[in-house]
C-alpha cells in the first residue's frame, strides 16, 4: 500500500541567538487517504513544526516530503500547484487566522476565484453557500455577510475549515484546531472533521496536546506521540491509551486528569525521575527521555538513540527497554 | 459557620445595548477547608462572579443586589460594605486570587524577588530578611528553588514555574480563602498534574478554603468537594462532586458531562451541546436553557425555576423536570453520564 502523503526521515533545525536547535529529528510518518490521525505531545515537542512540514509550509533541513510518491520540494509548476491545493492547514486561533475586515463571503470566495473554481460572483456565492452548509453554518444566508467579530469562536473555526475546503483538499492538517473553542462544542467540530474524512476521504492530521481529544478523534485510527522532536510511539488509538508501550506515553496517560472523580482520584501515577524537560539546545545523549525515564538503563539508554521499531500488536515504539520486553513477552507466549 | 456566604448576588455590566446581567441572584456557602468548583461555558458568569467576590470588577460593573458575607474569628462582615482600607486588607491577606494566564499577572520588568518584595511591603512587612526567608519558605512549599527563581525575570520561567510562583505569592499572607481562575489551562499535561497535586498538598497542609473557576471538568473531578454549575449568570445546580458527576439533575450539567471525552474507561456517547448561550442583555422569559434543552416543555418557558431540592441530600437543581432527568439517567449509581446515555 502506498501512502498518499509521507514524511521520510525529516529533520528541521532552527537558528536561535543561543545556538542551533533541532525541533524535529528524523521523523518518518506516512498517511493513507481518508485516514484520521493524531499527533500528540507537550509544547516544544515539535508537533507544530512537523505539521507545517507536512503542509509544505516549512522546508525540512533534511529528509523528504512525498505526495503521491513525488518529492514535493523538487516539484514545480502544475505539480506544485496541485500539491498546494491538495494540502490545507487549519490554524489554532480562529481569532487570528481570519481577516477581520473581510466578510465570510469575501474570505471564502477569494480562493475560489484564485483557483478558478468560480467565474462569476453568482457562481461563487453558490459554492460558498454549499461550503457553509457542509460545515453546518446554516442557514448559509445568515452567515455570508457576517464579519469574524460577529461570529462565536466555534463559528469562526467552522469558517476556517470551510476556507480549507474551498480547494477540495485531499489532506487537512489541523493544528490545535479545537483547543481555543469552548469545551461544550469541541466534539461537534471534531465530528465535522471526522465526517470529512469518512464521507469525502480527506486525510486529516489533528495536532493536539489533549489526549482525550486525540482518543475521540482518532478512535478508529492511530496516534503518534512526540517527545523533544521525535516520534516515540505510533500505535492504534485504543491500544495506545489502554496499554502504552513507551514510558513517556505511559507517564502522560497516567498524569491526565479525567472528568470522572472515581477514575481520576484512583489513577496510578508513573513517577518520573525528573520533572525537568531538557532544553532543545542541550539534548541529552542517547534517548532524550532517559534522564526522566523510570526504565532507563545505564550504558544503554544514555548512549544509544532508540529507533522507532515495530513491536507485537502492529505498533512502533522508540524505546530499547520496551522493544526488548515486549518482544520477549511475545516469544515467551508463543513458546 | 461558613467562611464565605454569598447571598443573592447580582452583577451587571453596563453597555451601550443596556445592562448585561452577568451574574443573577447567586447564593452559596463555602465552609472552612472546603474546595468549591464553579463550572460552566465561557459567558456563564463564573469569572465575573469570582472577580466580584473580591470587588475587583472593572469599571462599568454594577452590583445590583446581594451580600458577600465573610467570617473571620467568629465575626461576620459584608465585603460589599468594606472601605478602601478594609478591602486592601481583605484582598491578599484574607482572600488571594490566582488569575487565569499566569503570564499576565507579573510585572515583566522586575524580578521575582521584587514581586515578592512589592507584595510584602504593600501589606506592611518591612524587614527584607524576613521577607526573603518567607519567600524561600513559600517557594520551597511549591517545590521551587528560591536561589534560582528569585533573581529571575518572569520571561525566564516556564509556564508551570510561573504558575507555582503565583501560588506561592498568593499564600504569602496565609489567606483563609484562595480563588483560582482556570489554574491549569494552557499548561502541559505533566505540569498540569504537578500543579493539581501541589494544590491538593497545600490545601491539606494549610487548611485554606478554595474556590476554583474552570471550564475544565477534570480539574473539578480532581480537587472539588462541592460543585456549582453556572448557566447564563445563574447557579443551575449545586451538589457534592460525586452527585454532580454521577447523578446530575440539571440538563445543562448532564450536557456538560457528556461533552468531554475521557482517556480511561469506555468512551461512551460524547456529544456537544447544541446552540449557544443566550444573550445576557435580552434574556428570554422562563428558563434560559430552554432553547438548548432536550427536556424542555411549555411550562419551562413560563417562569425561571428556583433551585429545587432533589433526590440526594444537599443537592439542588434549577429544573422543574429534574425527575425526568433522573429517570433518563437511571438509578445506576457510579457510572459516568456519557456511558449511561450511550
Task: Outline the fold blueprint.
The complex is a heterodimer of chains A (335) and B (342).
Chain A: E1 5-16, E2 19-31, E3 36-40, H1 47-54, E4 62-67, E5 70-71, H2 77-86, E6 87-90, H3 94-97, H4 104-114, H5 121-134, H6 141-144, H7 153-165, E7 171-175, H8 183-200, E8 203-208, H9 211-217, E9 222-227, E10 230-236, H10 237-242, H11 247-255, H12 261-265, E11 309-311, E12 315-317, H13 320-334
Parallel strand pairs in A: 3-8, 3-9, 6-7, 7-8
Antiparallel strand pairs in A: 1-2, 1-4, 4-5, 9-10, 10-12, 11-12
Helix pairs in contact in A: 4-5, 5-7, 7-8
Chain B: E1 4-15, E2 18-30, E3 35-39, H1 46-53, E4 61-72, E5 75-78, H2 84-94, E6 95-98, H3 112-122, H4 128-141, H5 146-149, H6 159-170, E7 177-181, H7 189-206, E8 209-214, H8 217-223, E9 226-231, E10 234-240, H9 241-246, H10 251-258, H11 298-302, E11 308-309, E12 316-317, H12 322-329, H13 337-340
Parallel strand pairs in B: 3-8, 3-9, 6-7, 7-8
Antiparallel strand pairs in B: 1-2, 1-4, 4-5, 9-10, 10-12, 11-12
Helix pairs in contact in B: 3-4, 4-6
What does this structure look like?
In chain A, strand 7, helix 8 and strand 8 form a beta-alpha-beta unit. In chain A, helix 4 packs across helix 5 and helix 7 packs parallel to helix 8. Chain A has helices spanning 47-54, 77-86, 94-97, 104-114, 121-134, 141-144, 153-165, 183-200, 211-217, 237-242, 247-255, 261-265, 320-334; strands at residues 5-16, 19-31, 36-40, 62-67, 70-71, 87-90, 171-175, 203-208, 222-227, 230-236, 309-311, 315-317. Chain A has a domain at 5-101 and 147-242: Rossmann fold, CATH 3.40.50.300. With 335 residues, chain A is an alpha/beta fold. Chain A has an eight-stranded mixed β-sheet, sandwiched between helices. A four-stranded antiparallel β-sheet of chain A has the order 2-1-4-5. The two termini of chain A are 32 Å apart. Chain B is an alpha/beta fold. Chain B folds into two domains: 4-224, Rossmann fold; 229-340, no CATH class. Chain B has 13 helices and twelve strands. Chain B has helices spanning 46-53, 84-94, 112-122, 128-141, 146-149, 159-170, 189-206, 217-223, 241-246, 251-258, 298-302, 322-329, 337-340; strands spanning 4-15, 18-30, 35-39, 61-72, 75-78, 95-98, 177-181, 209-214, 226-231, 234-240, 308-309, 316-317. In chain B, the strands form two sheets. In chain B, strands 6-7-8-3-9-10-12-11 form an eight-stranded mixed β-sheet, sandwiched between helices. A four-stranded antiparallel β-sheet of chain B has the order 2-1-4-5. In chain B, strand 4 and strand 5 (75-78) form a beta hairpin. In chain B, helix 3 packs across helix 4 and helix 4 (128-141) packs across helix 6. The longest helix of chain B is centred in the middle third of the chain and has 18 residues, at 189-206. Chain B is globular, with a radius of gyration of 21 Å. The A-B interface holds A 42-43, 152, 154, 182-189, 191, 209, 211-213, 215-216, 219, 241, 251-253, 255-265, 267, 272, 275 and B 41-42, 159, 184, 188-190, 192-194, 196, 215-222, 241-242, 245, 255-257, 259-265, 267, 270-274, 276, 334, 336.
